[in-house]
Amino acid sequence: MGIITDNLDLWSSTLLGTLVLFVAGGLLALVLGTLVGAMRVSPIPVARAVGTFYVNTIRNTPLTLVFFAFAFALPPLLGLRLTGDVSLTLAICALGIYTATYVAETIRSGINTVPVGQAEAARALGLTFGQVMTLVVLPQAFRSVIPPMMSVFIALLKNTTVAAGFSVVNLGSIRSYLSERGENQFVAILWVMVVFVVLVLLLSWAQRALENRWKVAR
Amino acid sequence: MQRSEPAPETSNFSVRRGEPLVVVDHVEKHYGQFHALKDVSLSVDRGEVVVVIGPSGSGKSTLCRTINRLETFTSGSIRIDGDELPKEGKALAALRADVGMVFQSFNLFAHLTVLDNVTLGPIKVKRQSKADAERAARVLLERVGVAQQAEKLPGQLSGGQQQRVAIARALAMNPKVMLFDEPTSALDPEMINEVLDVMVGLAQDGMTMIVVTHEMGFARKAADRVVFMADGQIVEEAAPEEFFTAPKSARAKDFLSKLITH
């Protein structure tokens, strides 16, 4: 336990880094992914095309390459200096934009489970496409995709460690800091694993809570 | 029910009765190669109850869905209260708000309570306050006999109750005309009457209704006119008594004879 108690400063700052990446990246992914998922079923051909293009390009690119683009290609283009905050923001964007493609596809599969009559009834009431989606279709789509959606977010949580390679402090980078302080690297990695298992268990618990709350009687 | 009698002066519907409210004009519809509607023209007056019957695949449901453009059509025009049916967008949404629709499969919003189902349109489309919408919704739920179920989810209700909620949901928008697309076809026999009773009540109150149904009893009791469709065409139109006792076309005679033998 010495590796934890003697280095609480490192553990807390890296855990915080991971949580910031996860929460901010996750929010970005959820908002962007929902938008793109809705675009892919919209009646406007341009919106469908843009949504499909986005999913097909970003989802087919390895996450590390997305990070490369944000960490190394974008800053010179925008004239950014790579301070800690800028790196963190870029890492959040990379994670969010990458994960949004998976969120979009999960939402789209959820939209497909909602009977077409639900949208027809909503349209017949005079609701606009945006209202049909936000008031009737998406609430039901979300409920039906909680398990796969949670898998997407668990993957996001673990993907945050990739940011360590781009000088953003998180649990993926603690091993090297600990080894500088003379701790056993193998033990450090085992403890990182334990932290991730606990974090994912928390997410699974949240998933069960949501599933129980959102049971839809059909 | 005697339609010819003058309605009381107070009835809003009767005052303007007799003007065409829904005018379907030479509408054609194709699904790929299939010719679903062939030169269909139909005019429904304010306060009139028109029942559309015919064999399955005759295009009667398609016609019903075309009137609020849940189905597009190839050519022709449809006017509701003088306004041409817009193709899409906000104008179409606004027009649909004036056209109530009741579906065969109820289509109540599965994630919302009965009360929220009925108030969604008034609150989001008509911008009524939540309190006003709920007050009106409870009156409507009372009228269709499901007031006790207001806080339940649709899945907890029987089919007949769900369909009555669906009628209340459509009525909450205060529509100019109500479309019924086989409203009792998905119901158990003992639940059909509870829905038909509500519809007969609506007809007696002067609501303009276009009803696609297989319920000949309803047609006899509440319809001003029966429209018989076959193979995408309107074959015959007549008053119910005339149609059921002395159909003119061979197609209608054939259809009715099959009904009677069962």
Automatic annotation (TrEMBL), chain A:
It comes from the Bacteria. The chain crosses the membrane at residues 15-39, 60-80, 86-104, 124-142, 148-174, 186-206. Keywords: Amino-acid transport, Cell membrane, Membrane, Transmembrane, Transmembrane helix, Transport. It is a multi-pass membrane protein. InterPro entries: AA_ABC_transptr_permease_3TM, ArtM/GltK/GlnP/TcyL/YhdX-like, MetI-like, MetI-like_sf. Pfam families: BPD_transp_1. It is found in: Cell membrane. The keyword Transmembrane helix applies. NCBIfam families: HEQRo_perm_3TM. This is Amino acid ABC transporter permease. It comes from Agromyces soli.
